[in-house]
Amino acid sequence: MRQDVKLPSPCLATDHRIEADELPPQLRKLSAAVRRDSLRMVHRARLGHPGGDLSSADILVTLYFGALRIDPTRPRAPDRDRFIMSKGHCSAAFYATLAAAGFFPEDELDTYMQPLSRLNGHPNRTELPGVEANTGSLGHGLPVAVGAALAAKIDGAAWRTFVLTGDGELQEGSNWEAAMAAAHYELSNLTVIVDRNGIQQGDRTERTMRLEPLAEKWRAFGWSVCEVDGHDHIALLEAFHAVPFHPARPNCIIAHTQKGKGVSFIEDRVDWHHRVPTDEELAAALRELDEAAQ
Q1: pTM for the full model?
Q2: What pLDDT, in 10s, does the model give residues 256-275?
Q3: Of 6, 68, 128, 212, whose CA is between 20 and 30 Å from 100?
Q4: Pair type for strands 203-204 and 199-200
């Protein structure tokens, strides 16, 4: 385990902050909890996208408990970092992370996708603290993030913008228009994280619309690129804390992940993009996640 990981200060509000020497094991436990919660939510709602929830859990937990400068008691603080969940269909993992961080009570997760619930299938900033932008229509999150980062640069503000995209989402042309604008305006305060699990609705990304060579594409658009194991909390922490990689370029972190990570019969399965687990499958998945968290 690396011992030289440095955390930003301030990070989370005091009652949610995790000490540096405790961070990696605590992040693993939190990631397992987010995976369990998101599967329960999808099962209860009979709707959702469990494959992407599971692949993005480590990224979300590492951001919220180890990198973002935020305070859940002041969700609209002007100096907060902004995080935009562009792959908004993976809302279960996002909500579970927000609840764990203290943005709203964890028992509210039971209302996921229920009538009048604040926990819509896609995040809604007017309903829920901690949500910076309404997302779900793919290809919108990065353009919104570019606008946020540009506003911070114009104002001379120190806060940063992070955005999580899916890899299949990058087939949307709006992302590449936004990428071009971010490089033009030298938005080194902007970081995009790509959840590179290789699967989208219906098939693998490379069979649907080839993305590789993905890192070279981002570099050609004027971005600095880092590739990491998206399930390695230390690697993610080091990448998040290393930004900006260049003083005049936006940052791209390609996080190589596995769809359905943590549950053997869901991992790397195309059909689990938005399949709902049966009672028996949920019980088996929770057992695996409980065992892995020990």
Answers
A1: 0.92
A2: 999 999 999 999 999 989 89
A3: 6
A4: antiparallel
